[in-house]
Amino acid sequence: MGIRFFSCLVLLSFLSDKIVITEGRGLNFGQCELSRVSFPELKDYFGVIRKTVQTQDNRTDVILLKESVLQQVPISESCCLLRHLLRFYVESVFRHYEATSNLLKRKTSTLANAFLSIKANLRQCHDQNKCSCGEESHRRFQLVLGEYEKLDQNTVPVKALGEMDLLFAWMEGFKN
Q1: b or e along 59-95 (b: 16 or more beta carbons within 10 Å of the residue's beta carbon)?
Q2: What is the largest CA-CA distance in the chain?
Q3: What secondary structure letter does DSSP report for 91?
Q4: Quick one: pLDDT at residue 68?
Q5: CATH code, 64
Q6: Do residues 109 and 164 make contact, with C-beta atoms less than 8 angstroms apart?
């Protein structure tokens, strides 16, 4: 089920480039500019799943997206950290999340597709040497993975989805 769901997400992301739409304001992660990100739309999708996943989160002793990970990231490495985080969400969160209703399935699928689209744009920046990966972005992502390893496979998706508002807030800090 997980592999088939993930394959559908990948296919949908390529077929539907309209999931992430223009807002008129871009995001600058170092030299990488993302011009098609609609946070109100992403937050609406997150809002539908937020209460459910935050209610299901019983591990209050673990925080994946700590302030030490997201605060004061060197601008030159922000693109790389975002790539790592989006890959984590696509491969370890959305792929393993078991939604309890069709509505939650649709909303998480749409969020996953949006993350795939943003990730593809970041990959282009990386290929054009506009997305620098250094020790700091690697160290910060390792902090996320360290917290991730404290959780079992079923807990990770709920925990990470519940913290998605922290990721969105951090990303919005890069509006130009």
Answers
A1: beebebbeeebbeebeebbbbbbbbbbbbbbbebbbe
A2: 42
A3: I
A4: 87
A5: 1.20.1250.10
A6: no
Tens of pLDDT, residue by residue over 59-103, are: 889 999 998 899 999 999 999 999 999 999 999 999 999 998 999
Residue for token pair 């997400």:
9
Instruction: Please state, in angstroms and as integers, the Cα–Cα distance from residue 174 to each residue in 32, 58, 133, 134, 170, following that order.
Output: 11, 31, 17, 19, 7
Cβ–Cβ under 8 Å, residues 108 and 50 = no
Give yes or no for a contact between 34 and 118, defined as CB atoms under 8 angstroms apart. yes
Tell me how far apart the alpha carbons of residues 74 and 69 are, in angstroms, rounded to a whole number: 11
Q: How many domains does the chain have?
A: 1
**Residues counted in the chain:** 176
Closest by CA position to 55, among listed 161, 168, 169: 161
User: Which H or E run includes 27?
Assistant: strand 27-29
Show the domain range for 138: 2-172
